[in-house]
Amino acid sequence: MASDTLATTAPRSDAEISGLDALEIAGQEKAATRASRIWAATWPKVAALALAIGLWQAVVWTGWKDSWALPGPAVVFADLWHYLLSASLWEGLATTARRAVVGFAAAVAVGLVLGLGVARVKVLRAALGSMITALQTMPSIAWFPLAILLFQLSEQAIFFVVVLGAAPSVANGVIHGVDYVPPLLVRAGRNVGARGLNLYRYVIAPAALPAIVAGLKQGWAFAWRSLMAGELLVVIAEKTSIGAQLTYARDFSDAPRLMAIMIVILVVGLLVDAAFGAADKAIRRRWGVLDQAGN
Amino acid sequence: MTSTTTTPRSATGQVALRGVTKVYGRGENAVLALDGVSLDVAPGEFVCLVGASGCGKSTLLNLVAGLDRVSGGQIDAGEGVNPGLMFQESALFPWLTVEGNVEVPLKLRGLPRAERRERVAELLRTVHLADFGRKRPHELSGGMRQRVALARTLALDTPVLLMDEPFGALDAMTRDILHDELERIWSERRLTVLFVTHNVREAARLADRIILLSSRPGRIIYSTGVDVPRPRRIDSPEIAAIAAEVTDRLRTEVGRHGQ
C-alpha cells in the first residue's frame, strides 16, 4: 500500500480508505482443499449405501422370502453388470431419456408461460393460482386412465401426464420467484433505466432465478415419476423402454433383472437431481446466500 | 425553456418543486404524506432534508426520481434528466460482480462495450474500488457496497443525485470517510444533491442548506444555510452549533405530536 504518498490537500488519504477496506473484508477467505471437501461429502453417502446393502443381505439371509422373489445383492449386481453390457438397456434408456427430455422441456415451456402469466396478471392469479397448487397435489398416476382414453396407449398419453405432473411445479417456482423479488431491487433497477421488458431482463428474471431453478428441480422429480408410471402402464410393443422392461421383468418373474432396472432408474433420477442441485448451489454461491455450514 | 437540450450532460441540475402534494390511499383511509412542498434547488447545490419519522422524506425523493406520481403540484428536474437515487441499503444486484453492477446503467443507455469498460474502470477509480471490480457485492463491506452503489448511480451521468439515508446503516468511521468521498465527488462533478437523513450532524457536515420537514403531513417548516467553509469536520464546533440549532427545532416539531 502506498502509505508514504499521503496527499496533503485531500482531507482523507487513499491509504486510509483502502486500509479500512482491507480490514473490513479480512477473514472472509475460506481455506479447504478440494480433496478433503470431496471426501467429507462422499464418505457418509458411501457408508449409508454400504449399510443399506448390508441390511438387504441380512434380510435375504433370514430366509423371509424365497430367493426367486427376493434375490441377494450379489445376484442382482451380477445381473446389473450383464444388463449394463446389453444392448436392450441402452435402447430402453435412449427411449426413456428422449421422452424425459421432450416431456420435461414441454413442461418447462408450459410452466414458464403459465407462471409468468399468473405472476403478472391479477385475473389469471385469481383464476389459476390455487388451481396450480391443486394440480400439484394430484398424483400423476391418477391422470393415466383419462390419458389412455384420450390418446390410447401411445407416447402422447405419456407426454400428457408428464407435462401435467411437472408443469405446475415449474409454474409455482416462477410465481414464487417473481413474487419475492425484493422491491428495493426493482426500484433500483427502474432508477438506473430498466423499464418494461428491460426490467424483466436485467432485474426480475435474474432475481427470480434461484426460485425458478428450485421449481425446475421439483418439476423434474415429478416428470421422472410420471414418466416411470407411464412407461409401466403404457407399454408400446415396438418400443422398448426402461419402464416397459421393468414390466416385462415382473411378467417373467425375473427378480434380479427387475431389481437391476430399479437401480438404473434410481441412479438416473439421482444423477439428474444432482445436476439440478449443483446448478442451485452455484447460483446461491454467486448470490452470496450459500449456507456455509453445509461445507 | 431548455427543451432543446435532451442529453443529461447538458442539463443544469436545477430541481424545482411547486406545491407538491402526495396522498396515499383513498377515502377515509387516505393519508396525506406531503402537503404543498415548494423547494428550489440550485444547480450544484447540496441540500439536506431533515425530519422525524413520517415526514415523507423518502416519498419526496421517490417523486423527484419519477418512481411515484405526485397527487398535486409539479416537479421539474430538467428536461430529459433522470435523477439518480441511492438507498440506505446498497440495492446492488447480487447476481452481478461489482463491475457488472456499475455497467448496467451504461448497457441500458446503449453504450458500446469498449466505452462501457472504460467508463466502469473510471467510475471504480473514482470511488477507490479499482481493485474490487471482480468481487461480488456480498464479499464487500457495507461502506464499500455503498461506494459501488454510488458508482452505479454516477454511471447514469445525471446532474441530480438523490440520496435516501445512504449512510444510515454504517459505523461512524466509515460514515466519516464516505462524507469526504461524497463531498469530493459532488464538487468534482458539480452535482446537485438532495440528501435525506435523520442525522442532524450529518446534515450540517454535508449541506449547503438544511431543510426541516414537519411530520404527518410533511411540510417545510424551517430552512437554514450552512456557511461553514469546506473541507469540514463533523466534530468541529461550527458544525455542532448548527446541528444544535436544527435539533432544537426538530424537538419542538416532534413534541407537537405528543400533545
From TrEMBL, chain A:
Residues 93-276 form the ABC transmembrane type-1 domain. The keyword Transmembrane helix applies. GO terms for biological process: transmembrane transport. It holds the Pfam family BPD_transp_1. The keyword Signal does not apply. It comes from the Bacteria. GO terms for cellular component: plasma membrane. InterPro entries: MetI-like (IPR000515), MetI-like_sf (IPR035906). It is found in: Cell membrane. Keywords: Cell membrane, Membrane, Transmembrane, Transmembrane helix, Transport. It is a multi-pass membrane protein. Gene3D superfamilies: MetI-like. The chain crosses the membrane at residues 46-64, 100-119, 131-151, 157-178, 199-216, 258-279. CDD domains: TM_PBP2 (cd06261). Belongs to the binding-protein-dependent transport system permease family. This is NitT/TauT family transport system permease protein. It comes from Micromonospora mirobrigensis. The lineage of its organism: Bacteria, Bacillati, Actinomycetota, Actinomycetes, Micromonosporales.
TrEMBL record, chain B:
Keywords: ATP-binding, Nucleotide-binding, Transport. GO terms for molecular function: ATP binding; ATP hydrolysis activity. InterPro entries: AAA+_ATPase, ABC_transporter-like_ATP-bd, ABC_transporter-like_CS, ABC_transporter_ATP-bind, P-loop_NTPase. Residues 15-242 form the ABC transporter domain. It holds the Pfam family ABC_tran. It comes from the Bacteria. This is NitT/TauT family transport system ATP-binding protein.
